[in-house]
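tool=predict chain=A
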Amino acid sequence: MRYTEIPNPLTERLDQMDLAEQIRVFSEVDSELLGSDWGAGLRSPELMSQVLEGRGWVHETWGRGGTVVVMGAGTSGRIAFMATDHFSSKHRRVAFLMAGGSAALIRAQEGAEDNPGSGVEQLKALMNRMPGPHLLLGVTCGLSAPYVLHAAHWMHNQGARVIVLGFNSPESVSSIAIGALTVTDFLVSLRQLDRGMLMNPVLGPEAITGSTRLKGGSATWVLLSWLLGESAPDLSALEQTLDRYLKRAHRLSDTVASVGQSLRSGRGVQYLTDRRYGLSAIMDAAECGPTFGASFSDVRAFVRGGWRNYRLSHTPPESIAFSRRPTCLGTCIALGETVRDSVDLTAILQPAMGENGWLQLLTVKWALNVISSLGFVRAGKVLGNLMIDLRISNRKLWLRAVRIVQQVAQLESIEAESVLLQAAGLTPDMSIDERVTVCAGQTGVVPRAIIMARRDLARDDACEALASGVPIHEWMNP
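tool=predict ok
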């Protein structure tokens, strides 16, 4: 089953709930990380055995003076960089690769995860400049990113060890060619090879359908921390941290309400923080564009000292430095252009965060995910639990957009694709990559398609309807 692409029943009325219930169900979905009716999650005995074996591979690589390479696309790539920043040291060498390069840390790069050749070429170049032996940790939450999977296949063919992390079953992903195998065959083979490993615990669907930056991103961070951290995996420490966070999550309600109001009014939101939580803030802000169709200025992260805090061979062109001193020393959430109207997030979270560094970062991630996600829910960017205003920037998001239009407009798949083509001004003869290229520069494609289908409107009339500011759920009745 493709758990990452199906709706979670707990949140099917997410946009209609009051704020307290929204935070409660988000917390309930977060708790599925440690097991639910969907599966055992991170409690899986098989997974823990794999983690211990994988740690052995990691430490053997370091013991021989080698390099652990963590690579991913989108959220997975940003977490790969956060893992490199947090865990790499002189004798514990960790390197990261990300689809789209370092520019993708702060802005989604159109089609980057769909380019299989770039992952292989980047990996070859890294292996030439970083000492071996090399161990690859390839992260793709949906087990579907060609950038990661082709690199993993190539790496394994070189005789190196490969661990792939994801949260779907191999049988559920597209059977596209990868070398002489299909993706499914390659992933299944990893379970049977002594140099390969597939870690794919069952977490269940996300709170917002397809938004793997949430539970999938959290699980990725936990697994990388267990694999790369100095201490042996401690499930009880994770349980205690999650329990402490869930008991305080309701304290985020005022912040969520303020963020939602700020986003609705076009004032935007800023995360102002220091190096310690900088990457958590950068990651959350960067993901709002593809998930909610947000503009770059809607949610921004600024870090004291800017990019010079982090070891990057090429820094993104957008500055993250700020000159004004925030009123708080941890992570400050400012609304609009001034820090006058701000919230000290770490003061709210502090009793829940404990002393373990990577668990502190996980707690901040949970909180920022809730704040930004529910902020955009309250700004009208989610219908039920569907990200109806997503920006179509890769093949996966094109297919997700078709499914959303199909579900909301109650169409057959071929009809949904046809109206989505019309809404984006595309022609049926265009390839999926050509469609993505055009759609990546547009906003409102999915809501436009839904209104066209539900109200039988032409494209221009649907554009006018969206521009009127009337919430999309009010256009649902034909």
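The chain is about 45% helix and 10% strand. The chain has a mean pLDDT of 91.
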